[in-house]
Amino acid sequence: MIYWIIFGAFTAIFIGSFLREKRAFRNSIFLALSLASLFVAVAYATNGTIVNTLLNIVLYTVIPLILLFISFVFIYAGVIAIKRERFSLAHSLSIAFGVGIWGAFVAVAVTISAKNLSTITMSMVVLIALIAMYVIFTFSALFIYSQLYHLLPKNKNCDFIIVHGAGLLNGERVSPLLAGRLNKGIEVFESSGRKAKIIVSGGQGSDENISEAEAMKNYLLEKGISEHNIIMEDQSTTTLENMMFSKKIMDQMMSQYRVIFVTNDYHVFRTGTYAKQVGLKADGVGCKTAFYYWPNAFIREYIAIILKYKAVPIVLFLLWLAGTVVSMLNF
């Protein structure tokens, strides 16, 4: 009974938080806790039945196999990204993530099979396990919720469409990734009855001959969008500034308005959190991302979001440190 109460509590908290603000990271954690508590509740309620056996197979066989499969996919995607683009830390993240999953499995295997491990060795194994559990849980939670957020129905009858910029090819041409965003923006524009204003948002990088906004505007003009419907925001250098400066433009034009922002699918949720941060009520629409690019891109999104919430990992580290010290004193 207690497990069903816990499931009900986490579900109620999630629903309340979701209805209050759809763009909050806490929603992903509450949803994951709700799903995990449901799994535990069903497992205890079906003890001794075939359902319980199937749940054990899922927990001890299917989930580990899925994690190993994901590790191979991420490593493969990282190798392809490096071959197609170039070697960089950003393009190596998925490889590190995939190898890290294997490291966690090795740590667990060592703990189970080894005997008479030293206190220091055991504490390092525990630390690796804590990090792995934290990363896997929060990463999975963010992935599940961001997909849910991306699939939420959007009212495309809007006054403004913000298309977020990205790096240019040869300093002046729209890249395939940016073209995908612009094409999705045109799709939303058509859905709005061609009445909305398209704000192309992106400044000029040190290696670019023109601003991203200007390149985006040129692309839209080539696609038959009237200059009257295009507004340039060419000062921003970050996603937060994209939202902040675009909001300033819209506030000057209208007191009340409806807005849709367009970016890549992996970037929709974090962009939504920035919209919330600047006080902008906006729905996000994402365009598809190339397979090899997606893992590295989503890991960057995960890192950017998780760095805003340092308290939990710090507490876990302090608990580990305290446990290690106590173990050494008692040794």
TrEMBL record:
InterPro entries: Cell_Envelope_Assoc, DUF218, Rossmann-like_a/b/a_fold
Regions that span the bilayer: 28-45, 57-81, 93-114, 120-145, 309-329
Keywords per UniProt: Membrane, Transmembrane, Transmembrane helix
Transmembrane among keywords: yes
Residue span(s) of domain DUF218: 159-304
A Gene Ontology biological process term: Gram-negative-bacterium-type cell wall biogenesis
Domain of life where this protein originates: Bacteria
Keyword Membrane: yes
Pfam families: DUF218
One annotated Gene Ontology cellular component of this protein: plasma membrane
Identification of the protein by name: YdcF family protein
Lineage: Bacteria, Bacillati, Bacillota, Clostridia, Lachnospirales
